[in-house]
Amino acid sequence: MGIRSLISLIRRNKERIAKHLFALSASAAIAAVGLICVFLFMQGLPAMWDIGIFNFLTGTDWQPDWTPPRFGILPMIVGSLYVTAGAILFGVPTGIFAAVFMAKFCPAPLYKILKPAINLLAGIPSVVYGYFGMVVLVPFVRENFGGNGNSILTASILLGMMILPTIITISESAIRAVPGEIYDGAVALGASHEHATFRVILPAAKSGVMASVILGIGRAVGETMAVRMVAGNQAVLRMPHEFIRGVRTLTANIVLELGYAYPGDHRPALIATGVVLFVFVMLINTLFAILKKKEGV
């Protein structure tokens, strides 16, 4: 078959070829997720059974070098929840308001500066964020709130900054995707620009805004390097009022100890920690899907 015949065959069947190519791409994504699940659960679940699921999830001591070793990840679970909740508190309102400003209020000359800046924030490596946190945020928290600066508060502020590009970009796209007729109708009925934006346009874009928040939470839950550099990495169960004390998250626990895991259940216990983290992310996405279905968005 000559080149011309091959090109002609492709042109005649381009829709069928595109269909199979898209199906192959989707299948590859599903296969990747499936392989990750198989690896995590095959490696992690036996360790959970050996340790005891209840002891593993609710134990407050993580001492792999003790005899016998203790593998309780409750401090890391609580630490992850603390810093994620703090990141939501700092990052979600700021990101949504910034997206509304950029979509409906930002002057064109300023937009040309802000948009590349936000895109640049999305491309900054985590270790650079972590270094910024060590140099700027840690001393700021130490001088103004007390403690040594490596704390829940510092990690929350840093993660709030890191999720901003995701929330702003997706929320802005969702707001801009709302048909202009909706805004025109609200203004024609007497609404001001601000009222139409916040009471009509923003609710109409809630599906995209919720998606941005869920993706931001997913990044906050899964962030490793930056949190490791500023959170203190203390595997101690903290109370909510101890926000200026250090904690260790699930991701930091894995990256800190996987390289030198002791013989026995230490390495499988770290992989089991990854299973718990994976389940957390799945629960967040499932909750988002339920909310979308319930609200019909």
Can you put this structure into words, describing what you see?
The protein is mostly helical and 297 residues long. The mean pLDDT is 87. The protein starts with a helix and ends with a helix. The protein has 14 helices and two strands. It has helices spanning 3-12, 14-51, 53-58, 74-105, 108-123, 126-145, 152-162, 164-177, 180-188, 193-204, 206-222, 225-230, 250-257, 266-295; strands at 62-63, 70-71. Helix content is 77%, strand content 1%. Strand 1 and strand 2 form a beta hairpin. The chain has two domains: 3-51; 70-295, MetI-like (MetI-like fold, Orthogonal Bundle). It is globular and about 70 Å long.
Task: Walk me through the topology.
Blueprint: H1 3-12, H2 14-51, H3 53-58, E1 62-63, E2 70-71, H4 74-105, H5 108-123, H6 126-145, H7 152-162, H8 164-177, H9 180-188, H10 193-204, H11 206-222, H12 225-230, H13 250-257, H14 266-295
Antiparallel strand pairs: 1-2
Helix pairs in contact: 2-14, 4-7, 4-8, 4-11, 5-8, 6-7, 8-11, 9-10, 11-14, 13-14
